[in-house]
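Cross-posted from the bioinformatics board.
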Amino acid sequence: MLKIENLHATVADKPILKGLSLTINAGEIHAIMGPNGAGKSTLAYTLGGRPGYEPTGGGATLLGQDLLAMEPHERAAAGLFLGFQYPVEIPGVSNVQFLREALNSQRRARGEEPLSAAEFLRLAREKAKLLGMDMEMLKRPVNVGFSGGEKKRAEMVHMGILDPTLAILDETDSGLDIDALKTVGGGINAIMRAPDKAVLLITHYQRLLDYVKPDFVHILADGRIVRSGGPELALALEREGYAEVIAA
Amino acid sequence: MNKALALPTRRDEAWRYSDLDAVARVWPVDEPDRLIVPAGERRTMTLLLDDGAEAVAIRDHPVEIGAGGTLSVHLLAIGGALGRVTFDVTLARGAHFELKAALVGNAAQTIELVTTVTHAEPDATSRQTVRAIAAGHATTSYLGQIRVARDAQKTDAAQSFKAMLLDRTATANAKPELEIFADDVKCAHGATVGELDKAALFYMASRGLDPAGARALLLRAFIAGLFDDMTDEGEHARFEAAALAKLEALG
């Protein structure tokens, strides 16, 4: 589904990704872990197409389409969802209005009929409930006045509504207390655990992986994947720390 | 404006940022009617300036608000090669003037709002909220003067101007001016000029919203709320529709 080959990327002319390769098949959940500055967020932003994150070599395809050649909104329409570590506040624009326009923009790009207001609200209510989010919060401006945990929960509601094929979740677990972590983990499983979908979890810690069991765990260091393994790799990291595991 | 007056020049402060070639095409303009709000009464005014692309529209509004009276103005200026609205408001004791305005220009439009609010007597209040959006080679300007007379104690005046520039070739001018001769007064003013939030644009794109749709949403949010307190629902709907059509046409 996602095929990253020898990807190089720079931020402000500084090389961050230095030949990263990774293949994710449909039905799989992968976790990327790594120390600060390893390039985890750069990987997410480069795949999402954020201005300033410049791919300089190699490539990435999603379902055979050249991801890096597409505009960010086209990548979303092609099935990519990027969950932000720091979701952006948009004063004056309600979640409901924003998500309906975003979803319908994606649907138009795919040649599908837009959803009516009533159809959209039904969908939004269902996904909000799944993540234990009050519908009233979805009527408020995007992320404005939301706590860290509420923002992450709202990200997962966005994901549920947009129903992507591949989700790249950048530190979705940061800022969550144990209860919220459980809810968000359950949401990821409910929305994305399917034979035709895949997830790339970017995280510092093992704890999210207790709720969303990865099929593969990769360690990212200095812009490359230096080790790959099963869930046991995350446990080893938690026990021994990055320096030990990377050196081993 | 008086018919006898000479054509304004750039040396006239109130015309400094105007399109004088356009002004010359219609000069002299008719002398405007003076609006008088009687003491203790409340009036509302809605102004939608959406003349055609070639038009030159100059609307002057001399206003006197009597003691304890209120005038609430909603203005949407989006039309004309030159669209110029002026208010010259004099407030008596305890009077209140409220102005909520959106100025939106694209192509080579010049859209300007010039206000002079004179607090002539004590205890009067004024609130001016102005939002401007300029695209292409357009110029949006807000010149807001507040004058507080010597014995107009307890004056409470506020101005807020925020402008958004969508292109490097667009211009926004802001000129707040305070002339205060009383000592127990509150005058607040703020002016900012900015661009669309790039982080928000990427966030919206990452959710699949196309660039034009993302921009339109952010611009709607920028002027949202200005017209929410309009009492005439028909007028409110007309303003919202005109604003939306203009934002979508910014291109």
